[in-house]
Amino acid sequence: TRTMPEAVFTQGFISMMGFIPTLLLSIGLAVVFAVALTVTNAMLISSRERTIDIGVLKALGFTSSATARLFFAEAIILAVSGGACGILFAWLMVQPMRDNFAKEYYTANFATYSVRNETLLYAALLAVAIGVIAATVPAIRAMRLKPTDALRMEI
């Protein structure tokens, strides 16, 4: 048998895990894609259910851009609130994860684990981008909708 110090073994183990960042990136992108589809679906259903309301707003004098802005505001609020919950959860989980990794692997390498402020900023910007993307189709649909057609429509 070959003996080696624990630090050398730990370093070798960590170096063998080189594909993990790529795996985590793939999982993260899949989650972001699923969230984007979910928010888009919610916005499409919401706009479909409020077709008559859009017609009433337009009949009262709301412009097409004003109705579109309503959809953008709703989607951004929905996406940002979800993103804020995720950011808060990540921020709250840093210390317990750091402590558990240090206890489990008996090493100080995990003691420096943290979520950088840039990562939190990217997450917030990504939430806003998802909101804007999710609102695009419903907003365009609301802009093109004529008040008479909307008021005539049955759900």
Give a verbal description of the structure.
The protein is mainly α. 81% of the residues lie in helices and 0% in strands. It contains 6 helices and no strands. Helix 2 (20-49) packs antiparallel against helix 4 and helix 4 (64-105) runs antiparallel to helix 5. The chain is elongated and about 85 Å long. The mean pLDDT is 84.
Summarize the helices and strands and which ones pair or pack.
Blueprint: H1 6-16, H2 20-49, H3 51-59, H4 64-105, H5 117-144, H6 147-152
Helix pairs in contact: 2-4, 2-5, 4-5
Fraction of residues in helix: over 70%
H/E order of the elements? Answer: HHHHHH
Low-confidence stretches: none
Strand content: under 5%
- Spatial gap, N to C terminus: 74 Å
- Rg on CA atoms, Å: 24 Å
Biggest β-sheet, characterized? Answer: none
Q: What's the β-strand tally?
A: 0
Structural class by sheet pairing and helices: mainly alpha
Number of helices: 6
Shape: elongated
Question: Quick check: average pLDDT?
Answer: 84
The gist of it:
The protein has 6 helices and no strands. With 155 residues, the chain is mainly α. The mean pLDDT is 84.
Q: What distinguishing features does this structure have?
A:
single chain, 155 residues, mainly alpha
